[in-house]
Structures are given as C-alpha cells and as structure tokens.
From TrEMBL:
Record keywords: Hydrolase, Magnesium, Manganese, Metal-binding
SUPFAM superfamilies reported for this sequence: Nudix (SSF55811)
Name of protein: Putative Nudix hydrolase NudL
EC number: 3.6.1.-
Protein's UniProt keywords contain Amino-acid biosynthesis: no
Gene3D superfamilies: Nucleoside Triphosphate Pyrophosphohydrolase
PANTHER family: MITOCHONDRIAL COENZYME A DIPHOSPHATASE NUDT8 (PTHR12992:SF11), NUDIX HYDROLASE (PTHR12992)
Entry-linked InterPro entries: CoAse (IPR045121), Nudix_hydrolase (IPR020476), NUDIX_hydrolase-like_dom_sf (IPR015797), NUDIX_hydrolase_dom (IPR000086)
Domain Nudix hydrolase as annotated: residue spans: 25-160
Co-factor(s): Mn(2+); Mg(2+)
Amino acid sequence: MTNSAAAERIRGNLAGFTRIAATGGRAAAVVICVVDDPDEPHVLLIRRAYRGMNSGQWAFPGGKIEPGERAVAAGLREVGEEIGLALEESDVLGVLDDFVTDSGFVMTPFIALTSAPVRLEPNPDEVDSVHRVTLERLVGDDLPGWTITPSGARLLNMPLRERMRIHAPTGAILYQFREVALLGRPTRVRDLQQPEFTRE
C-alpha cells in the first residue's frame, strides 16, 4: 500500500463503523498512531518501562483521563508525554469500541494518522522501547492467534514477530483495528478475555 492508499483505506472503513461506548470504570485513552510512510505504513507500539503498573507490557501510548479533560485530548497528551510525538485533533481519523480491562479501566482507542518521517523521543520513565509494525503485517493470514488456558478459556493473541506476542487488552484493540480499519469488517472485541499477567 502507498501512503495515500493506507490513509484512504482507513478513512473509508471507519466511515461505516459505529463504535460502542462503555461506562463505569476509570477512564483512559490510548492512541493507535499510524505513520503514513510511502514505503511501509506502520503503527507504533510501545513496551512499557519495567517498573510500576503494567511493567514491561506491550501497549499503545496512552493513560488516564484527568478530571475535566476530554478523552481525545488525554490520548494526544499522553502520546506527547510518552513518545514525544506531537499530534493534533485534526490527525484523528476515528475511534474504536471502548475496552473495559480487568483492572477496571475503560480504554477509549483513538486512531490518528501522521506522515513520515517522525522523530520520537521516548520518555524512559514510562517507555522501555518503541516498535513499528507494518500494516501489511497486521493483515497477515496467520493473525490472530488463540491460546487455550488450563481452565479451557480461549485467549486471543497477536503474534507479530519473534518475542512480540500481544494479548488483550492491547491485543484486542489491535485486532479490532485490523478488522475494522484495515479490512472493513465490523468486528467486536469487548468479550475477549485477558490473561492474568496483564492485570499486574
């Protein structure tokens, strides 16, 4: 896909999507940052710093919504604070379904588009590393993967490359991004379960 094809594909698919909002938890916002690279359009994923909540876990840039703050503003603020990428509300293409985590957060996932090249400045207090995953990889026929737990639960995972297997909640949001924004399939993910380690 060229950069213009990637942008138009996402915009077109989101135009026919009606999101489902959720309430009742601690509000948070994350941003799926799509970098419109003419060679390899990709999304940005982070590995959280190995300290505090969600230590070392895969995530999108994001965090808690402060009192009185709009969700989209919170998501864009967190992108700037965590990876040093300045985005405007005009860069936001749409919003996916809220995902309620086992730890009690209601995560609102925004999709934002920015042009390459991007200069990133990860905050070492919050981010261990930043990773690029191409849109081509995200629509691979081998995705998603499924794991059966000893209790018989079926857990989604996104095995993107060696040592990069992403579970819910981030994996669920990434899967809905793939299905809705990239493939135009109205897929819901709110019932997907999280493995226990993601609750730490």
